Each structure stands twice: as structure tokens, then as C-alpha cells.
Amino acid sequence: MHLTFSELEPYMLSPKLWGKLAPPQGRGMQSFSTASGNPAIGFFDDFFEFAETTGTGGYLHVETTNGTVTQIASDGRGAATGMGICRLLTTAEDNSEAMLAYGNALDAPFKLTGNTLCFEARIKLTDITTSSHGFFCGLASVAGCATTACITASDAIYATADFLGYQQLKAETTAVDGMYQVSGKTKVDGAVNTDLDTLASIATTSFIKLGFRFNPENGGTVQWFVDGVEDKDARLRVQTIETADSDSFPDGSYMTPNITLVNDGTTACNMEIDWLACAQYQ
Q1: What single DSSP character describes residue 19?
Q2: Residue whose C-alpha is closest to residue 59's, from 18, 88, 33, 31
Q3: Is 181 in contact with 174 (CB distance < 8 Å)?
Q4: Exposure on the CB side of residue 27, measured as CA atoms within 13 A
Q5: Which residue, 59, 165, 170, 271, has fewest beta-carbon neighbours within 10 Å?
Q6: Are 64 and 21 in contact (CB under 8 A)?
Q7: Higher pLDDT, residue 218 or 211
Q8: Cα–Cα distance for residue pair 276/245, rounded to 1 Å
Q9: What strand order describes the sheet that includes 175-181?
Q10: What's 80's DSSP letter?
Q11: Looking at residue 78, what is its pLDDT?
Q12: Is the pLDDT at 123 greater than 90, yes or no?
């Protein structure tokens, strides 16, 4: 995959995030060799193919209270027709929920220990209304891949699963925080660590790329990227986190990509996922 073409950068993987770890061009999990020759596993899903039935295309679909997970025509690169968008749709009903989680809720292939990992997704919301909806985009343990087990009915991140990613809870309107959580521990987001506050602002008229890179060197760091640009103030130093509060970074569980949208019944909302990618050196 070519990552040097500047005209593609707004649409495709972010070069500064991925570096030499571009995943293979395939929707299913693959073992592959990177440009440097190092072995890795990962996938890049542009949603040109999509199985509507949960558990049949590599993904779990959670569809609660008329929420749906479906494929629609692509408009991500100016094409009004053709395939290539996964849509999470929630209706104007309380706790309407749509979740797309890799691994069928059976397998979680990635772990935040030992090897470099990259995650990125290109998404767009169709509605921004205070106290209308919440979403999560990132990695979650299998325990977070179930009905109301990512974002709960009380507009909170589920307490007994591991998470690393981006959250926009219902009362935050357009603000998107970085966050992480170890199951049973206090969640850390922008309210706890102000450097993670409002890493991005969502607008309904355009796609946004949300991603992060885990680097194991020097005790481990997490770099946060929005539209390919790192927020250096938000960089997490895992060794510092663990020293301050033992076992407070989610490196003890295998995790998998999870994107979840939940509504409180005020206004129907769609999230469109242009593509999703995750890879890790082995």
C-alpha cells in the first residue's frame, strides 16, 4: 500500500501513524511481512464486501432496540454509487444501539504488550445533538463486545472490560476524548487526564480519521492521531501510568477493534465507517 501520495492522505491510512506497519489490503486477519521484513498480523477493511448477518463475516453485530449494522453506497471519495461504507444506525428510541466488533465476540487478536500496534478508522456522524448519542472507537476486550457492554444505558463506558480508544458520550456534543480503562479500575478520560480532553471535534459534514499507535519501547507509549496529526500533549507513557497506579493501563487482556454507537431517543443518528484497520508486529 502506497502511503507517500499526499493527495490520498486525507482518505487513506495516515503515514505518520502507521510508518512501516501498513496492514495488508485484505478484510480478513492475515499474517504478513512488513516493508522492513518483520512479521505482523492485521487487516484493512474498506467494506467493499460485507456480511449482513452477525458472526458470518468476521464481525459481531450488536443491534439493540432497532439499531442496525449494514452496508451502504460509498461517498467517502466522491463516488455517489458503489460499495464501501459500513453504517451504524440508531433510531430515536432510548438505548438504540449498533456495534461492530471484530472477531465475532469470540476472538481478540491484539495485546498491548511487547510489539508495536496501530489502529485507525475513518468515520462520520450524521447528527450532533447534546444528550442525543454516544460512541466509542478503538480496542476493547471481548467482555466489551456485547449489548450495553461498551456504552451502558446510563451513558457510561462499561466498567468490567478493558478499553483503549476514543469516546464521545452523550452530553459532550462534538467533543471526543481519548480514554483507557482496565476492567474494574477507574476509567481515565479527559475529565481525569486533561491532556486527553477534546482530542477531536466531530462535525456532521465530513469524515474524520481517529487512530493511535502503541510503541513498546522505554516502558511503552501511546500516540494519538486525528486526521493523521499527532496530539503530542496527549501522548501516554505507560511506565508512568503503571508506576502511579499499578495495573491501570489495559495491557493484561487481548483486545479487538470495536466501534459502538448508542442513542438515548432524542434524535436518530448514523455513523458511517469508511474503513477500519489494525495491525501489530509479531
Answers
A1: T
A2: 88
A3: no
A4: 15
A5: 170
A6: no
A7: 211
A8: 32
A9: 59-64, 94-102, 256-264, 133-140, 163-168, 175-181, 200-201
A10: S
A11: 46
A12: yes
Q: Rounded to two decimals, what is the model's pTM?
A: 0.93
pLDDT value at residue 5: 47
Cell numbers placing 116: 508495536
C-alpha span between 1 and 35 (Å, rounded): 10
**Distance from chain centroid for Cα 53:** 21
3-class SS at 275?
strand
The CATH number of 6-281 is 2.60.120.200
Within 13 Å, how many C-alpha atoms sit on residue 176's CB side?
24
Measured between alpha carbons, how far is 280 from 282 in angstroms, rounded to an integer? 6
Q: Which of 133, 229, 144 is nearest to 181 (CA)?
A: 144
Please give the grid coordinates belonging to residue 87.
453504517
3-state SS class at 221: strand
Listing DSSP states for 130-152 in one string gives: TTTEEEEEEEE-GGGSSTTSSB-
pLDDT tens readout for residues 173-209: 889 999 999 999 999 999 999 999 999 998 887 899 9
CA Rg value for the chain:
17
Backbone phi, then psi, for 44, in 5-degree steps?
-130, 115
Report the 10 Å Cβ neighbour count for 233. 10
Say if residue 117's pLDDT is above 80.
yes
